Amino acid sequence: MAGFRSLARQVRDPRCDLALRRYSLRKCLERFAPYGHRATWDHLCSRAGFGPEDRSPDPVRLVAALEELEEARSVWLDYEVEFARRRRKEKHDGLRRPGSVDDWHRLTWGGFGVAWCDDPRVHPGEPLAEVLRRLIAALERDPGASCPVCAGERLVWRYDLDHEPSSGPVCADCGILVPRPVLTPEALAYARRGRLLVSA
Predict the structure, then answer these.
(1) Are 66 and 5 in contact (CB under 8 A)?
(2) For residue 147, with 0-12 CB atoms within 10 Å meaning exposed, 13-18 middle and 19 or more buried, which class applies?
């Protein structure tokens, strides 16, 4: 089974058939897809300027989509290295019980679904790397009352998501499943009750 880097080489290789290059980009999403496979594909296609069903996209656009994905993957891998370093230090210092961020992180190891979008057509419009930077910054500060990606305050509790956890606060503005550790208990309670939290 090919890894992310070898698939990326195929996407860039002009000697490869265009269908193989497109297929290889799709296969990259099996290794790293922050919004989930379908939503990440929709995002990359819309930002690079080709249709999700386009079987013969411009190779330059394919490579542009790959470059955006690679930058985001680099941001996430850096975070995972720092996360592992922090956990080793905490264990060394006697903190064996992981916190809520650690529980959330275990579900997203490798970066799949880290900013899950259950509706593949509703996702943030910003570059993937920027979305991940905002999410990581939120994980490293005190919880807040809004979406860490778009700052939207319209959080609605959704059930039966195609993800783990299968329920949680979804941002009605950008579509991501907001990680519970980045929200205050009050914001989570408002989302559960189906009410919008209004800032003071």
Answers:
(1) no
(2) buried
Whether the model clears a pTM of 0.85, i.e. scores above it, the answer is: yes
CA distances from 113 to 52, 60, 92 (A): 19, 27, 30
Render the burial of 117-144: b for 16+ CB within 10 Å, e for the rest.
Answer: bbebebbbebebbebbbbbbebbeeebb
Q: Token pair for residue 147? A: 């979406």
Residue-by-residue DSSP string for 21-59:
HHHHHHHHTTT--TT-HHHHHHHHHHHHT--TT-SS--H
Identify the burial level of 85 via C-beta atoms within 10 angstroms of its C-beta, where 0-12 means exposed, 13-18 middle and 19 or more buried.
exposed
Q: Spell out the residues 6+ positions from residue 152 whose beta carbon is closer than 8 angstroms to its own.
A: 146, 171, 172, 173, 174
Taking only the tens place, the pLDDT of each residue in 54-105 is 989 999 999 999 999 999 999 999 998 888 888 778 777 776 665 666 777 7
**Beta-sheet strands, E only, within 45-194:** 155-158, 168-171
CA distance 138 to 97: 21
Strand partners, 168: 158
Distance CA 52, CA 26 (A): 10
At residue 157, the 3 state secondary structure works out as strand
